[in-house]
Amino acid sequence: MTHIFNFSAGPAVLPKEVLAQAAAEMLDWHGSGMSVMEMSHRGPEFISIYQAAERDLRELLAVPDNYKILFMQGGGLSQNALIPLNLLGHKPDGATIDFIHTGSWSEKSIKEARKYANVNIAASSTTAVPPQAEWQLTPGAAYLHMCTNETIGGVEYQPDFNDLRLQDVTLVADMSSHILSREIDVAKYGVIFAGAQKNIGPAGVTIVIIREDLLGKALPVCPSAFDFKLVADNESMYNTPPTYGIYIAGLVFQWLKRQGGVAEMSRRAQAKADLLYAALDGSDFYETRVAPSNRSRMNVPFYLKDESRNEAFLAGAKARGLLQLKGHKSVGGMRASIYNAMPIEGVQALVAYLNEFAGQHK
Amino acid sequence: MTHIFNFSAGPAVLPKEVLAQAAAEMLDWHGSGMSVMEMSHRGPEFISIYQAAERDLRELLAVPDNYKILFMQGGGLSQNALIPLNLLGHKPDGATIDFIHTGSWSEKSIKEARKYANVNIAASSTTAVPPQAEWQLTPGAAYLHMCTNETIGGVEYQPDFNDLRLQDVTLVADMSSHILSREIDVAKYGVIFAGAQKNIGPAGVTIVIIREDLLGKALPVCPSAFDFKLVADNESMYNTPPTYGIYIAGLVFQWLKRQGGVAEMSRRAQAKADLLYAALDGSDFYETRVAPSNRSRMNVPFYLKDESRNEAFLAGAKARGLLQLKGHKSVGGMRASIYNAMPIEGVQALVAYLNEFAGQHK
């Protein structure tokens, strides 16, 4: 096998142990004679897989009993519409949604929300999370939406964000690209959502964690397949769920538990990010553009000061098996995504290459 | 490995060759060092997988150039909302959708459509497709929706349905449970959709085949992630598609081509269905309830005349490795789903058991 480290922003690297188990079980899951892909979602085999995945995720994130966990389809992006479609049904016309704008994913959410409600951008910055004291919130807003880790720009709300004090505000958080990389206080949030293809599993599964009192408030035009209450009441089986993706997510959850859970993932994320940012900060060959206090521990965008060397940098990286380091087309430069499944050896190899390339081109 | 035949209605049996290839490639696709699950959807590796899948499906169904093929999320059920959300934007208030009601899936589609438009049930029967001469169509209806194979009730429009003559009617067909089992004249339809988990691949992928002039007619409240025009314009990558499911679907398409394509699948479907219905008709121990002229070649519901023997029948079947024969809870009885990936040996084993069980309980 070609030995590589895959820095893709998503779909992204998965634990090798998980892939090996999936390969071994592909034709015959636990002596059933069936692949997980071939199982009825209503049969006892798949139900056991589903229930274990739900239970393990609940344990990993310490999700309180008054929250439902939904396994949906459509991706994180679809939630930009599905959240208003599910939360605004009880509001009179003219509901307002507050947003904290911190980058490309906030921007997409804002644009989509305008279809369903008034939008107020309570604060905006793409290089740091605006201080809470500066947020201009709307009294009586339907909810406050934030993207707690911007995958493209690399701005992350820091772990102590759990100390945020917001009274009478329903907080909706897009945690797609850093869920399960740090401990969170779920009770602070009304809704947490995440596309799976960064820290959870394959693309095609979307996790929604929702406080029960927020169910049953869908607009009449909300498609039934995406009605949170119907999905919750049917344990994510109102229609056929993405069974194989849920199975892989479940294997990832088991792997996370074996590693020591989210606390251990947070420790590793800090160590990996410290190593990488130290290398970038320690060289005048590279630069980063996010305020140090809000640098993402998952997605590390960086730039060569001499961007004419970008192609040479990427070619040299690829030759060393360091893949998918090109930055998002909207911002250019480079980006290293270092999710839970990225071993520290991958970051060490990248740091060695950063130093080597800088040394060669001084 | 336990040797079984899996008669599940979906998710359902897949070709063993496909599963074996997926297992072999799980940790390293074509020397890339990556699992398909780990690939960026925008990278050259996955793009090549996507393009091959699209091309092969287009070839298998002879999809004309003026049709787009979309690989979406949400399942066939979600299309009951997404079709009106995408087709009614150019209609003044008060659009009407015509339906042919032939069973449970038509019923679900009708219920959902009422959220978005007036509904006219042009004809209704759950044991046969109503003759076209009896359809009461609405002049100027937005479109006519039909489910061409009812997975639960087992009513199927017959292959010669391609001879249907409908002038100035946009035909929308839910082909979830028999797509790729017979040749179709795509040009007769405005939209064809199908959840993947019966004849295509794993749950979590939905195929939409749409005539280009029907794009761009979405209602303002249609979520962007499910806007057919945005999906079409971005080659199913407006947001991250269900990459692994598309890969498996692509392997199934390659398998279908190796077998001889849809014409050969249709021949086999007829042979399998003839064998099974002959056994059911030939015994006074069992009964079927669909008019012979509209019996599904994919989903064969049947009943023991003495239903007190249902549990014994299922237990005996399971002991012989004949799995998932219990009928849908809404209709009871038994159901054998015999999709493309079910070998004739599976049907032969079922027929042998039908005869054996009937003989034992006379």
TrEMBL record, chains A, B:
<dbReference type="GO" id="GO:0006564">
    <property type="term" value="P:L-serine biosynthetic process"/>
</dbReference>
<dbReference type="GO" id="GO:0005737">
    <property type="term" value="C:cytoplasm"/>
</dbReference>
<feature type="binding site">
    <location>
        <position position="151"/>
    </location>
    <ligand>
        <name>pyridoxal 5'-phosphate</name>
    </ligand>
</feature>
<feature type="domain" description="Aminotransferase class V">
    <location>
        <begin position="4"/>
        <end position="350"/>
    </location>
</feature>
<comment type="similarity">
    <text>Belongs to the class-V pyridoxal-phosphate-dependent aminotransferase family. SerC subfamily.</text>
</comment>
<feature type="binding site">
    <location>
        <position position="197"/>
    </location>
    <ligand>
        <name>pyridoxal 5'-phosphate</name>
    </ligand>
</feature>
<feature type="binding site">
    <location>
        <begin position="239"/>
        <end position="240"/>
    </location>
    <ligand>
        <name>pyridoxal 5'-phosphate</name>
    </ligand>
</feature>
<comment type="pathway">
    <text>Cofactor biosynthesis; pyridoxine 5'-phosphate biosynthesis; pyridoxine 5'-phosphate from D-erythrose 4-phosphate: step 3/5.</text>
</comment>
<keyword id="KW-0718">Serine biosynthesis</keyword>
<protein>
    <recommendedName>
        <fullName>Phosphoserine aminotransferase</fullName>
        <ecNumber>2.6.1.52</ecNumber>
    </recommendedName>
</protein>
<keyword id="KW-0808">Transferase</keyword>
<dbReference type="InterPro" id="IPR022278">
    <property type="entry name" value="Pser_aminoTfrase"/>
</dbReference>
<comment type="pathway">
    <text>Amino-acid biosynthesis; L-serine biosynthesis; L-serine from 3-phospho-D-glycerate: step 2/3.</text>
</comment>
<dbReference type="GO" id="GO:0004648">
    <property type="term" value="F:O-phospho-L-serine:2-oxoglutarate aminotransferase activity"/>
</dbReference>
<keyword id="KW-0032">Aminotransferase</keyword>
<keyword id="KW-0963">Cytoplasm</keyword>
<feature type="binding site">
    <location>
        <position position="174"/>
    </location>
    <ligand>
        <name>pyridoxal 5'-phosphate</name>
    </ligand>
</feature>
<dbReference type="Pfam" id="PF00266">
    <property type="entry name" value="Aminotran_5"/>
</dbReference>
<dbReference type="InterPro" id="IPR015421">
    <property type="entry name" value="PyrdxlP-dep_Trfase_major"/>
</dbReference>
<feature type="binding site">
    <location>
        <position position="42"/>
    </location>
    <ligand>
        <name>L-glutamate</name>
    </ligand>
</feature>
<feature type="binding site">
    <location>
        <position position="105"/>
    </location>
    <ligand>
        <name>pyridoxal 5'-phosphate</name>
    </ligand>
</feature>
<comment type="function">
    <text>Catalyzes the reversible conversion of 3-phosphohydroxypyruvate to phosphoserine and of 3-hydroxy-2-oxo-4-phosphonooxybutanoate to phosphohydroxythreonine.</text>
</comment>
<dbReference type="InterPro" id="IPR020578">
    <property type="entry name" value="Aminotrans_V_PyrdxlP_BS"/>
</dbReference>
<keyword id="KW-0028">Amino-acid biosynthesis</keyword>
<keyword id="KW-0663">Pyridoxal phosphate</keyword>
<comment type="subunit">
    <text>Homodimer.</text>
</comment>
<keyword id="KW-0664">Pyridoxine biosynthesis</keyword>
<feature type="modified residue" description="N6-(pyridoxal phosphate)lysine">
    <location>
        <position position="198"/>
    </location>
</feature>
<dbReference type="GO" id="GO:0030170">
    <property type="term" value="F:pyridoxal phosphate binding"/>
</dbReference>
<dbReference type="InterPro" id="IPR015424">
    <property type="entry name" value="PyrdxlP-dep_Trfase"/>
</dbReference>
<dbReference type="InterPro" id="IPR015422">
    <property type="entry name" value="PyrdxlP-dep_Trfase_small"/>
</dbReference>
<dbReference type="GO" id="GO:0008615">
    <property type="term" value="P:pyridoxine biosynthetic process"/>
</dbReference>
<dbReference type="InterPro" id="IPR000192">
    <property type="entry name" value="Aminotrans_V_dom"/>
</dbReference>
